[in-house]
Amino acid sequence: MTKATIEVSGLVKTYAKKRVVDGLSFTVNPGTVTGFLGPNGAGKSTTLRMLLGLTRPDAGTALIGGRGYHEHPEPLRVVGALMDARWAHPKRSARAHLTWLARSNRIPVQRVDEVLAQVGLTDVAGKRVGGFSLGMAQRLGLAGALLGDPGVLVLDEPANGLDPEGIAWMRGLLRALAAEGRTVFVSSHLLAEMAQLADDVVMIGRGKLITQGSVTDLTSLSSTEEVLVRAEEPERLRDLVVEHGATAVEAPERAEALLVSGMSSEDIGRAAARAGLVLFELAPRRRTVEDAYLKLTADSVEYRGSVQQPVEGSRA
Ligand SMILES: Nc1ncnc2c1ncn2[C@@H]1O[C@H](COP(=O)(O)OP(=O)(O)OP(=O)(O)O)[C@@H](O)[C@H]1O
């Protein structure tokens, strides 16, 4: 196993005049599980396809260990990928599928039984893939990705179709693979899932990078307190908090209420009293990581100036 870094730089892809990947740059390091997060349609799969040489970028580069996917003489030994769990021939058995994959990539066939055991499919190795549940197909896809003992794993929504026990198993496996020094890059549109699994996160919205950083940073970013304030004269309240160096935006979940960041509820209450402002409501609310994610991705929609597609689950 050779360690390798993923480096994406200035990546662009346009479909039908729409930039689905728009100048994306980020790095994914060995020894970490890095979550690739973004709402549906954000451009995650398109980016991964460019990384794997399945789609040609219009501009920019997507390199693994300093080279494009097709520049590696034996790519399966460098990068293992799970993009579509259902690509195996339905009439083949799991073992036959992996044996074919190993032979066509000059990988020793004894690896087949090793990876079948690693993903927990030994008992059904002789069964036809067509009869597999989505969760079993995901495990088979993962076995295929592990076959060449690659230093880099690129997995598109690998938890799809797994039951809670399967998800816990997958989490353990991916963490163990990263602990061995591998670069594990996993896409998901579910932040809660990534918060439990990943060390780092690359977050995108509408094809652009929103943020890259550790999950810990993201959690501290999101744990800043906001205060929901309903005042008789909202405009005066807004001016008042701005004078105190804080910010106020309209609360998405509450008509005529403001969401103030940068000031405690006590300070807002005192300042309002001094200014003779009547408050109807003053409620601190701690943002969860999920809120931060929804807020960040919702902002990326607004950034484009038009909301073509609502952000899934967004309250904005
Ligand atoms: N081959 C293609 N031709 C035209 N449009 C495409 C093509 N592939 C993707 N798109 C469009 O590009 C955008 C980004 O899609 P992509 O699948 O990369 O997003 P995603 O972040 O992976 O979303 P999801 O979580 O839903 O899989 C979408 O609007 C999609 O319809």
UniProtKB/TrEMBL annotation:
Domain ABC transporter per the UniProt entry, residue ranges: 6-231
Keyword set includes ATP-binding: yes
Gene Ontology MF, one: ATP binding
Range of residues in the leader sequence: none
Highest taxon in the source lineage: Bacteria
InterPro entries the record matches: AAA+_ATPase (IPR003593), ABC_transporter-like_ATP-bd (IPR003439), ABC_transporter-like_CS (IPR017871), P-loop_NTPase (IPR027417)
Keyword field: ATP-binding, Nucleotide-binding, Transport
PROSITE patterns per the UniProt record, alphabetical: ABC_TRANSPORTER_1, ABC_TRANSPORTER_2
Family to which the UniProt record says this protein belongs: Belongs to the ABC transporter superfamily.
Protein name in UniProt: Spermidine/putrescine import ATP-binding protein potA
Organism: Streptomyces azureus
